[in-house]
């Protein structure tokens, strides 16, 4: 059922195009200088993104400075207190999360200045000289979405992946078994779903994260999948669309993995990219886990 690694590498190489070394499994060449700075790493990634740098982006340096010499890098979904503490234990001083650090999309902190939770997290990083750069917009805007590539690999679906497309054609399986597969591969104890557990699923629309109801529904309209797999969805949007679709006679399901688990593969993608780009620099992937538990 699952592909050879060699075939996935070949597919990924095609999608990246001539002259763009975006494939995380290929060697990028040794750009390592005697001292690698935060700015060196940021620039190396941004320079490989079409149209970058973006004039407006949330991918800014939240802590530290561009000139800071890097002792080690941690890739993660969320820079939680636990991830920060583990970073310190590892002797690393540069964290690259995919999602916000200070509880809002733009990481605005003016409204949090007097809050003890913010102060504690901010102080922990300042006291230990931690630099932090969010990599959200840029990794999603590679020639092929780096997060999606990472999640496809986690799910073991490389052989079914068409570079650049969110639609995968897997061997026919029931929605129930598809959920079981995703739970086992992504380490998630429970997932929400809409649809019929007995429905046969073959065309999978994979949209990690929280793209929003309109983007998810427009994806369904465009690709006509059997099932949508996403990270999050407002209950009044895509789930209601799926319910209405089934009521009108259309066989359609959706699986809601949870935001963190649906994109954590992107941090493994980034770790591999860093290891190839800066082979002498200690690099770690620390999964941040889910803040919400199942009882």
Order of helices and strands: HHEEHEHEHHEHEEHEHEHHE
Overall mean pLDDT score?
91
What is the CATH top level name of the largest domain? Alpha Beta
At the third CATH level, what is the topology name of the largest domain? Udp-n-acetylmuramoylalanyl-d-glutamate--2,6- Diaminopimelate Ligase, Chain: A, domain 1
Q: Which structural category fits the helices and strands? A: alpha/beta
Shape: globular
Quaternary organisation of the protein chains: single chain
Order of strands, widest sheet: 1-4-3-2-10
User: Percent of residues in helical segments?
Assistant: 25-40%
| Strand percent estimate | 5-15%
Kindly report how far apart the N and C termini lie. 33 Å
Descriptive notes:
The chain is α/β, with parallel strands linked by helices and 295 residues long. It has 2 domains: 21-141 and 263-285, NIF3 (NGG1p interacting factor 3)-like (Udp-n-acetylmuramoylalanyl-d-glutamate--2,6- Diaminopimelate Ligase, Chain: A, domain 1), CATH 3.40.1390; 149-259, 3-Layer(aba) Sandwich (Udp-n-acetylmuramoylalanyl-d-glutamate--2,6- Diaminopimelate Ligase, Chain: A, domain 1). Helix content is 37%, strand content 15%. It has helices at 5-16, 38-46, 81-90, 116-127, 137-140, 146-155, 175-186, 213-223, 238-247, 259-263, 265-277, and strands spanning 61-63, 73-76, 94-97, 131-133, 167-174, 192-194, 200-207, 227-230, 253-256, 283-285. It has a 5-stranded mixed beta sheet, sandwiched between helices. The protein has a 5-stranded mixed beta sheet with strand order 5-7-8-9-6. Strand 8, helix 9 (238-247) and strand 9 form a beta-alpha-beta unit. It is globular, with a radius of gyration of 20 Å.
């Amino acid at each position: 059922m699952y592909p050879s690694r060699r075939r996935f590498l070949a597919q990924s190489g095609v999608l990246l195009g001539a002259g763009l070394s975006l494939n995380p499994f290929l060697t990028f060449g040794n750009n390592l200088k005697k001292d690698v700075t935060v700015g060196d790493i940021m620039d190396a990634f941004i320079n490989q993104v079409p149209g970058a740098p973006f004039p407006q982006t949330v991918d800014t340096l939240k802590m530290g400075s561009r000139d800071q010499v890097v002792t080690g890098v941690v890739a993660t979904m969320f820079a939680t207190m636990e991830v920060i503490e583990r970073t310190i234990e590892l002797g690393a001083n540069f964290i690259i999360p995919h999602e916000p650090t200070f509880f809002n999309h733009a990481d605005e902190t003016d409204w949090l200045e007097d809050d003890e939770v913010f102060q504690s997290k901010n102080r922990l990083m300042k006291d230990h000289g931690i630099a932090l750069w969010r990599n959200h917009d840029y990794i999603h805007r590679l020639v092929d979405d780096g997060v999606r590539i990472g999640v496809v690999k986690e799910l073991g679906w490389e052989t079914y992946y068409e570079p650049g497309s969110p639609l995968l054609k897997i061997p026919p399986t029931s929605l129930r078994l598809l959920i079981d597969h995703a739970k086992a591969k992504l380490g998630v104890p429970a997932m929400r779903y809409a649809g019929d557990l007995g429905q046969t699923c073959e065309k999978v629309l994979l949209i990690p994260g929280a793209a929003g109801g309109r983007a998810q529904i427009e994806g369904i309209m465009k690709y006509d999948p059997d099932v949508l797999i996403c990270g999050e969805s407002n209950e009044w949007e895509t789930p209601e669309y799926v319910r209405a679709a089934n009521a009108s006679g259309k066989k359609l399901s959706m699986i809601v993995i949870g935001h963190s688990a649906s994109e954590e593969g992107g941090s493994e993608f980034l770790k591999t990219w860093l290891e190839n780009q800066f082979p002498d620099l200690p690099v770690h992937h620390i999964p941040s886990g889910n803040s919400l538990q199942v009882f």
